[in-house]
Amino acid sequence: MTELLEHPKLAPDEPATIEKVAIVVSKGSLEGIYPALIMANGARMEGIEADLFFTFFGLDAIRKDRYEKIKVATVGNPGLHMPTWLGALPGFSALATKMMQSQMEKIDIPPIPEFVELVADSGAHLYACKATVDMFGLAMDDFVPQVDDIISVGEFYALAAGGQIIFT
Questions:
Q1: In a domain, 12, yes or no
Q2: Cβ contacts of residue 2 below 8 Å, gap of 6+?
Q3: What is the pTM of this model?
Q4: Tally of domains within the chain
Q5: pLDDT per residue over 89-126, tens digit each?
């Protein structure tokens, strides 16, 4: 019975702690982007290497023309615990966004543009997905200066090697 309570032994080459995270950001809503930025910031604060890979609508977090206008997704969002039709009412998304931003401000979480800069300045690397960039007809000039590069999925996997991959 005591054998079941013992902790598993780590292999000699296996680190005792997480040393690297690779975070995939695929949603372009406030509640899709902030978890990735918070996790990357937390990783860097702990000395953990962090790479963020922005794909599909997650690219909005690093697009010059969109990253200041990110809103809460109110239609069909089960996390809001309200009928879908309510989220479709004109102005409701703006109201929900304002309320969430107010709550985040109270606990000192910066707006997305400032947070992107903070995370990049902390040493995290930001990458745009090449396939998505090509699909949306974008170029490096469309992104904020903190974006390190536009890379393929294969290149992202190579960067992520040995790390924990996290999807937000």
A1: no
A2: none
A3: 0.83
A4: 1
A5: 788 888 877 888 888 889 999 999 999 999 999 999 99
